[in-house]
Amino acid sequence: MINFIICDDNKEFLIREKKIIDNLMMKYDIEYECKMFTNYGNDFQNFMKEEKGFKIYLLDIQIDEISGLDAARIIREEYDDWTSVIILVTAYNEFKYEALTNRLYLLDFINKLNNYEENLKEDIHRALKNYNNREKTLKFEYNHVLKTVEYRHIVYIEKELDSKRCIINTIYGNMIIPKTLTEVYKMLDERFIKTSRSMIINSDYIEQYNYKENKITFINGETTYQISRGMKKGIKDYVEHNK
């Protein structure tokens, strides 16, 4: 399920945005809903809190006391949601630099007065590629119970000390998988990097890499020094070209 969350104080523009989304989504076999808000009040913030499907936000940058940029900051920093897609929308280009330099991982900044419909369609196509890539899951059995965890929720996986099991660190807690690190690595996709004999990381969660200290800092503030000598240059090059 994809949730499009649109917030704009112009009701006519809200309807226009929903129509663009409805027409575009007819081409995809994906279940979706559009949630429309005219301000960033309690109803909007209550929906932000919900763990409900994959979210794509279209946020007007100027509404009352709370701006779209403020809302984006709340989504990322207060609710620790770094997986939802956020697109800022405005008629004022002077906000673009501020929006794109706040390290809030925005997909785009769209001007309502400049080829808006085509730009929005292009951004939704990009967001749907992100959705298709991130909804993959790791499935395994533990204590006779089938477990599943979405790849996009995994921050890193490390080998349990003196054991043939691993610990999966996710955005909502840890879980045990009764497999070796090598076995787990074969079950994952290309976003995961085996940095040492004891650690696999999700490259989407890398905030920065300190080459001198050989330390990776993740988006959620956790760190690891488990990068083998042979992986140092590869991690450095990856971060420089992708972050």
Mean pLDDT: 87
The N- to C-terminal Cα distance equals 28 Å
Please tell me what the overall shape is: globular
Question: Which regions are unreliable across 5 or more consecutive residues at pLDDT < 50?
Answer: none
Q: What is the helix tally? A: 7
Secondary-structure element sequence? EHEHEHEHEHEEEEEHEEEEEH
How much beta, percentage-wise? 25-35%
Which sheet architecture does the biggest sheet show? Answer: 5 strands, parallel
Give the strand order, joined by hyphens, for the main sheet.
Answer: 2-1-3-4-5
Instruction: Calculate Rg over CA atoms.
Output: 20 Å
- Annotation, overall tally of beta strands: 15
Percent of residues in helices comes to 25-40%
SSE class: alpha/beta
